[in-house]
Amino acid sequence: HYRLAHSIRVSNPAAITIEGASAVDTVLDISEGEGPCIQLSEGIEATVRNFRMTGFMGFEDRDMAGHMRTYGSTGIWGFGLKHCCAVNIANTERVLVENCHASRMSGECFVAGGRSRGAVKPGRSHTKKITYLRCSVTDSARNAFNDVMCGIENTDVLNCRVVDVGGCSWEGASRFVTFSGNYVRNSGTVAIGNLGPANRDDTYPDLGAGQTIVADNVFESGVCYGGCAVRSARGATQVIVRNNIFINFGSSAFEVGGGSYGNAYPSANTTVTGNIFDMTAVGQKSVARTAILVAADDTVVSDNQIYVRGTNDAAVTGIRLREPAVNALIHDNLLRNCGTGIESVAARTGVKEIVDAATFEAGYGAVPLGWQPHLYRGWTLAWFRGGKPAGSSEIESFEPLASRFKLKQPGDMKKGDLFEIRSDAANWNIHGNTIAGCLKPIVLDSPGSATSFLKDNLISRDGAAGVTQAIQIVHGQFHSSGNMINGFGGQQ
User: Fold this and answer.
1) Which one of 14, 230, 267, 391 has the fewest beta carbons within 10 angstroms of its own beta carbon?
2) For residue 216, which of 194, 191, 246, 239 has the smallest C-alpha distance?
3) Per residue in 210-257, pLDDT tens?
4) Sign of CA dihedral 447, 452, 429, 488
5) How far apart are CA 146 and CA 167, in angstroms?
């Protein structure tokens, strides 16, 4: 039982193994100290295995360790005032952390940060491979596993257990990540991306970041932090979420986010397939929640099961689509006993500053603001004032770094006005889905386009009381054809 005042620091390891006799009896105890139990810095290869690690701040103190507002400055994270964690990795090339079990850590428990391949000078190293194998994080205030810079590559979190963790189960701004075979309960989001200007470097335009596979995991009951179990957002690209089980899930499950947050780009290129979402609220009050939210471009959602056991639950939405996301393919999903099966909505964002009569800067909000300068040229910008439509404009150009739109013609816009962005070719294809026993099987309440299709779906009333319409197109342009509707009589 080793009681630590400060970290065990290993600098420039060439090939070192730090190993305990067993993960039950060999304890690294930093409950009266500060810093990581083990700090790896630079070097080539290190292995850490068979330890139990304990700190001084548990799950019940998660708010104390969280984000705090300060007067006259930016906010701070509480754990920065006194920090402890299990393992911190800084630029070591290859690391294996095996059979290590941590609890009561104030900060990110297993964490890595450092330079990227594009910033490595001769004779220096950067992290090329990290594997966390058969580890666990329980009863801790903040994140379980974390990569904080986009330059870290090839991190695997495999066959680990995350229970009662007050921050993210995984947060990764890095590349080429696998989160697989894990069990997660009463913990925060698997947060993919989260790339802001501070952790995005010059390699981003060519290499991207956030490439992640989330596969073969079990998520039980809900999340205590972050709003959903898995989220791909803020610059993540090339993400696969497959073959996961969500059981008795009382929170939202998956989001591919398109919102804009201070030069943090939207996510894209996402596949969600083969998952089972049991959205039954057990032992808790049922709250509004969504199994799958699609709010970013280039997303495939297929072959998933989304259901509530027993009677339908009005608080559950199966699949929600948010425009102006384009290139969405939603097919061959089974949705049963949800409040709403499939729905579409429109995203709005406000005007932050007026530059001139034809130019304005957008604020942060739900509309994705991409990083390609040509992205929205020729698209329609629809205005809203006081909750009512206030005309439209054509977009001439967009400057990503400034979040600045230039309109083709001057407009009567004011600070605080809301706007939607609308494409002439949304390229939505919603087909081949089976929707049974949902109170609102399909509700489309977004602009749509000439390339938005709803076809060949099977919609069954299946005993759902009070249901009168199978498909509601509130407004927008959608092509509906070939849908098989059963049990609705003349109200289809």
Assistant:
1) 14
2) 246
3) 899 999 999 999 999 999 999 998 888 899 999 999 999 999 999 998
4) positive
5) 10
